[in-house]
User: What shape does this take?
Amino acid sequence: MKSFGKRMLVSAAAATLLGSGVALGAAPAQAQPWWGPECAAYPVNNSAAYSTCYWFGWHQVKIQCRHWWGYFGSSWATYERRGPVVWGAQQSWAHCDTPGTLQRWEVVTFGW
Assistant: This one.
């Protein structure tokens, strides 16, 4: 009977944890302002990325790249680059120093 009680307790705790995540609403991968400019970022050849919006709003691409020497050692040090701030459907580009070192890309949006 103790085993059944422990299972029920663990199940209840897991359900509470999952339920609170749904109730609080997990944040989206790309934060969009309330006016919804519908922005997205796209990688290019694992070396660069660009962002564009399908509606009005200021935006900028932000990327994270690996240092070139990270391939040869145990250290995977990274650095961040940002593209220019642009309006609407214009593209904001950012490039890594070394080809093939792009790790992450995202859109940063700004208010009016």
In short: Helices lie at 2-24. The chain is about 20% helix and 35% strand. The radius of gyration is 21 Å. Residues 58 and 87 are 5 Å apart (CA to CA).
